[in-house]
Amino acid sequence: MFSRKVARVGNVLVGGDNPVAIQTMYDSQIADCDTDQIIHRMKVLKAMGCDIIRFSYVSSRDRDNFRKICEARVMPVVADIHFDYRMALEAIEAGCSKVRINPGNIGPKWKTEEVVRAAKDNDVAIRIGLNCGSLPRTGEGNSKADVMVDSALEYLSWFEGWNFDNTVVSLKSSDIQTTIDANVKFASQADVPLHLGVTEAGGVIASSIRSTYAFTRLFDKKIGDTMRVSITGSIEDEIHAAVEILRAAGLRKSGVRIVSCPRCGRHTFDSQGFLKQVENRLLTVDKDITVAIMGCQVNGPGEAKNADVAITGIGRKVFLYYQGQLYKDVELENAEESLFELIDRL
Fold first, then answer.
1. How far apart are CA 41 and CA 307, in angstroms?
2. pLDDT tens digits for 279-290?
3. Which domain CATH number covers 271?
4. pTM check: above 0.70
């Protein structure tokens, strides 16, 4: 959203005045997977807010399934490549929209050039991906942030020499301040779209907090064009966290805003369990609405007044509110479908 240059990743534009694109990385190898199941899951992820998805491409055994996934055209597909430049060439031939490489672990410079020329011929973007854990070299006396930036600038000079500019750069570390410092320094020296991420950030809570801290400070400096929240957990959680971070930063406004209470001793309706049951489904609803899920009748009616749709309950009796007014009560087993029937009316 902030760099002046724009990268083309399939039908998604990254950088310039375009919205910050949300990414995730598929959590299984694809050689022996059911591609129909993968494609279905991709459709759900897209409905939740995912714009780009990355897959590990580890061997030629991945080629057939990877091609099917690309041909489904659910969203732009990125091939994650390490060590063997031939895998990048295969992924490009199979139809990916972007390859992620670290030229430092590809080998001799001519191998990176082969990948760049193939990407240029096929209108495929390249992400130069540098993590603290896989730096090509260490600079004596230099910080890890400096080494990442210097390496990225060197690789960019190669790309420019080969007349290739459809490039995104990522500079990631598990250390928050290193991530911030590297991106700030790089952005002061190059105007290339930046992919933000705090790598190996931990579980849902730790990763969401660390990523929010880093991303919002970079967004405040107008740095960051695409992002991944790296969570030790489900990729659905990654998308949910990314959407909420962008909304908190004022960079994304569409979609369902969920209001839910922490459970207390007054509850007779399991709001936590119900939220877990419906949350991902709610996130696929393409409406700018607020849905409140409350655990008791103390705060439920009050929150309902500020929500488009609200739900609370007493025991197995559940109460639905529509624009602040009691709409109807239903049995607990019918609560989910009744909630979504009401949302459909909006």
1. 29
2. 889 888 888 888
3. 3.30.413.10
4. yes
